[in-house]
Amino acid sequence: MPHNNLGAKCPEDAANADIAARLARRLARERSARLEAERTAEKGLRDLYAAKRDLDIICKVAATANTANRIDEILEPAVEAVLDATGWPLAAVEQLGARLLEGPPVCLTRSRRDDLASLALLIGRGSLVLQPDSEAADALEKGEVYFSTDLKHDPMPFAQRVVAENCGMRYSVLVPVRTHERTVAVIRLIAPTPANNPQRLAILLGQIADQVARVYERQQMAERLIHDALHDPLTQLANRQLFIDRLNRAAQAKLMGGKDYSVLFLDLDRFKAVNDTMGHAAGDTVLIEVAARINRTVAAYRLLPAPTVARVGGDEFCILVENEPGADGAIGHRLASDLVERIARPFVLGAEQAEIGVSIGVAPSFYAFGNGDLVLKSADTAMYGAKSQGRGQVQIYDQKLRELDIRRERLVQCLREAVKAGFRGFSVVYQPIIDLASERLTGFEALMRFVDDTGAAVRADEFIALAEQHGLIGKLGEFVLDEALQAQARFNASAAPDRKLTISINVSPLQLSPTLAPVISKALTRYEADPALVAIEITENVAIDQSERTMGAIDALRGLGVRVSIDDFGAGYATFGALRKFHFETLKIDRSFVEGLDADEGIRIVKAIIDMGHGLNVAVTAEGIETPQQARMLRELGCDNAQGYYFAHPLDFEGAMREALQQPHVSHRDAA
Ligand code: C2E
Ligand code: CA
Ligand code: CA
Fold first, then answer.
1. 633-639 CB contacts, 8 Å cutoff, 24+ apart
2. Are the CB atoms for 267 and 290 separated by under 8 Å?
3. Within the chain, how many helices (H) and strands (E) appear?
4. I want to staple 527 with a disulfide (CB 3.0 to 4.6 A). Which of 114, 489, 572, 603 is the partner?
């Protein structure tokens, strides 16, 4: 039998031990639960603290980003923030592909270690090149933060990697700076240990990078606005404003003893014909291709600084060459000759071809105008000089042109003062217009004359062009209108009703505005003129401009009942279809065709014009008849009216009055 002594005691002890063990277990459980709770609380606090720190970091970056206009203002703060966020020793911003940063990329280290400082220098130099289809490239393109587990997976140059590894660095993180369109840069962090909370870090780094991207986009937007304001949208060349700005600087610098320069002014030949016949889209294509040819030709000269190429008007381009070896524009002249040759080559437009050309004026810095507008004007003058020699020419602004300019400047001044002084020096002369069949006077063309302050007569072509360019033509037009209608009233005062003389008055295209008809209407009323005996002569070229303004002005003239006469017919570029829209009553054959009447071909052309005029029920007048042969030929061809030195030169009022008075004062229609 087992000893029973303890037998009574044993069950008691066992029960106690059991309780103790249970208690111990419970205690342990409670302790561990308490520890767990403490740990959770601590972690919550830590997370809270970390979140608060992240928030502080991101707030600081965002505050800088809010005021930064340029990308370089945000890069350093962003890299600082990244270092704050990770506590890692080194971070850099590296550009990707396109130019992002003006200076070198930013690379910062907080470590005092020399080897890390060298690594920072090394990284701070290059830009990042991504291996296509690599893991890193994929992540960065998608805008995801990339954690490399080994520097080998980081797309860094070999030399950098070796140095980084020697510094004890094993891990890197690449954070894409992504705009709406693409990843433009990467923030790279390098560390000896892996990130301990990659998810949290990825979010924070992503937010910092977003702030950088925001500033980048803002800067881009501002740069685009500035670019658009200074460039031609079609060709992307500089616009007039930018060109003048650069030219002003070059011109002023030259005045202060700076470098010589030259300016080329290009005006395309026959471009309007391309636009009119092949359409505006073809015209645009030609302009873009011309810009490209200019750029290529200029680039071949390898000049530094690169010349500024600008589009300054519809088919006008300018080039500023800033490194001329002397004041005579030698490089500009050579470049101009090259350009003439290049632009003369055909332009292929789909199945069609266009051939245009260019006339170029070159202004050297010899005359040292301190103002860009004056330089440009002299280049423009030279360009007109080139055009007047025929197409595809180059003309340099030389002493002769300079003298011409000086004369024009003086003349403009003189015209201004003369207009102000009640049209002092201006007068109107009257050239008889003859009915060819009867050789009887039918009327006069009023032509303006001007004598300058030295008493010299100035050619009508010359002073009228200047008056047009300087805003004086409107006033002069009113002067002529008034004089001519007054003269007509006196010519016709005693004429028989069917012998009344017509008056033809030239109107500049610039006068075709809404105010023209009211002005004419008032003058008609003032002199009680019969509108049917008043012809307004408009040159053929106005038909090219079919703007509402022009068309409206001509319609308004017809509304007054005056006749519209197409002047210089055949000398301009207007298509007949365009001309017909004006419903004119008279067509004046340009003098150049009358000159051609001594050849068979010339005769055929004039005959064609006359027949066409009659087909349209339009009276035809020939201008510039100087010989009896021309007069006879025109009569044979059936031309209605004639005007020219052969019949009479323009006459002053008294002379014209004498002619008018020789008209029969009663109807001689039958006797004629
Ligand atoms: P246009 O309207 O074609 O005027 C005819 C021009 O030919 C006049 O020159 C006239 O004197 C000239 N002429 C006439 N017969 C002959 C001839 O047989 N042989 C030659 N070689 N020439 C002849 P003008 O008066 O020097 O005027 C030149 C141009 O100036 C005019 O050409 C016209 O475009 C413009 N013009 C003249 N007066 C006025 C005006 O009052 N207003 C406007 N807007 N323009 C005017
Ligand atoms: Ca005329
Ligand atoms: Ca004419």
1. 633/597, 633/603, 633/606, 634/436, 634/594, 634/597, 634/606, 635/436, 635/437, 637/603, 637/606, 637/607, 637/610, 638/610, 638/611, 638/614, 639/436, 639/589, 639/606, 639/610
2. no
3. 21, 21
4. 489
Q: Which amino acid, 528?
A: E
Q: Which two tokens stand for residue 501?
A: 């003389």
Residues of the chain with pLDDT under 70: 1-9, 97-104, 126, 664-672
| HEC-encoded secondary structure of 619-655 | EEEECCCCCHHHHHHHHHCCCCEECCCCCCCCECHHH
- Assign residue 372 a region (left: φ > 0; alpha: ψ between -120 and 50; beta: otherwise): alpha
Q: CA–CA distance from 169 to each of 162, 205, 488 (Å)?
A: 10, 20, 102
132-136: long-range pairs with CB below 8 Å, 24+: 136/174
Say what angle helices 473-491 and 460-469 make with each other, to 10 degrees. 130
- For residue 453, the model assigns a pLDDT of 93
Residues in Cβ contact with 423 at an 8 Å cutoff, skipping those fewer than 6 apart: 476, 479
Expressed in angstroms and rounded, the spacing between residue 186 Cα and the centre of ligand 2 is: 72
Residue with tokens 């980084």: 164
For residues 144 and 200, give the distance between their C-alpha atoms in angstroms, rounded to a whole number: 13
Pairing of strands 457-458, 440-451: antiparallel
Ligand 1 contacts (CB < 6 A) are 431, 447-448, 459-461, 464, 480, 506-508, 537, 567-568, 623-626, 643-645, 650
Which residue lies with its CA nearest to atom 13 of ligand 1? 624
Measured in Å, residue 629 CA sits from the centre of ligand 1 at: 22
Q: Distance, CA 542 to ligand 2 centroid (Å)?
A: 14
User: Order of strands across the sheet with 394-396?
Assistant: 308-313, 316-324, 260-269, 357-364, 394-396
Picking from 599, 601, 641, the residue whose alpha carbon sits closest to that of residue 623 is 641
Instruction: Please say whether the beta carbons of 395 and 362 come within 8 A.
Output: yes
**Could you tell me if 347 and 286 are in contact, meaning their C-beta atoms sit under 8 angstroms apart?**
yes
Q: What is the pLDDT of residue 573?
A: 72
CA 45 centroid distance within chain = 62
Q: State the amino acid at position 497 in one-letter form.
A: P
> Please, what's the b/e burial string for 144-158 (b: 16 or more CB within 10 A of its CB; e: otherwise)?
ebbbbeebebbbbee
Quote the ligand 2 centre to 667 CA distance (angstroms).
29
What is the pLDDT, as a whole number, of residue 438? 93
**Are 634 and 597 contacting, i.e. CB atoms less than 8 angstroms apart?**
yes
